[in-house]
Amino acid sequence: MDYLTTNELAKIWKISARRISLLCSENRIEGAVKKGKAWLIPMDAKKPEDPRKARKNISTKEA
């Protein structure tokens, strides 16, 4: 299996590498493993939903 670093995945997902590191530490990216100080993320990993967007959509639908 091929892996990407947080910096490589940040360019693909268009979010910061720090945010990806946080998602990994919260176990929200399936298959991510930590090697030393670096996170290795499978190439086929799916971007988790942002709960902030889900809450915004719910509140606008209720209004």
In short:
By secondary structure, the protein is α+β, with helices and mostly antiparallel strands. Helices cover 46% and strands 16% of the residues.
How would you portray this structure in words?
This protein has helices spanning 6-13, 17-25, 51-62; strands spanning 3-4, 33-35, 38-42. It is α+β, with helices and mostly antiparallel strands and 63 residues long. The chain has one domain (3-62). Strands 1-3-2 form a three-stranded antiparallel beta sheet. Helix 1 (6-13) crosses helix 2 (17-25). It is elongated, with a radius of gyration of 14 Å. The mean pLDDT is 89.
Largest sheet, if any?
Answer: 3 strands, antiparallel
The quaternary state of the protein chains shown equals single chain
What is the domain tally? 1
- How many beta strands in the DSSP annotation? 3
Question: Strand order within the widest sheet?
Answer: 1-3-2
Order of helices and strands: EHHEEH
| Average pLDDT, all residues | 89
Shape: elongated
Broad structural category: alpha+beta
Task: List unreliable stretches of 5+ residues.
Answer: none
Classify the beta-strand content into a percent band: 15-25%
Number of helices: 3
User: Nearest-angstrom radius of gyration?
Assistant: 14 Å
Give the distance, in angstroms, between the N- and C-terminal Cα atoms. Answer: 46 Å
Helix % is 40-55%
